Amino acid sequence: MSEGTPRADAASVLGGKFLGRALGPGDILEFLRRAGLDPDDIPLDDALLIE
């Protein structure tokens, strides 16, 4: 898969713990909420935080 091509799904891991499969940004935001984080504090476009 070439860089920049959206994936159909992606493993979501936080602190080494598998949270599930994200099918889109909304899923990632939900995983952050479930982990007790405020999604507004996490920039989804930060490559150091979100691969």
What does this molecule look like?
The protein is α+β, with helices and mostly antiparallel strands. The protein has a domain at 10-41. 20% of the residues lie in helices and 22% in strands. The chain has 1 helix and 2 strands, in the order E-E-H. The chain has a two-stranded antiparallel ribbon. Strand 1 (10-14) and strand 2 form a beta hairpin. The two termini are 14 Å apart. 2% of the residues are buried.
User: Outline, from the CA principal axes?
Assistant: globular
Question: Into which percent range does the helicity of residues fall?
Answer: 10-25%
Count all strands and give the number: 2
Strand order, main sheet: write it out. 1-2
Structural class designation: alpha+beta
Nutshell version of this structure?
With 51 residues, the protein is an alpha+beta fold. 20% of the residues lie in helices and 22% in strands.
Main attributes?
51 residues; alpha+beta; two-stranded antiparallel sheet; 22% strand
Structural topology:
Blueprint: E1 10-14, E2 17-22, H1 25-34
Antiparallel strand pairs: 1-2
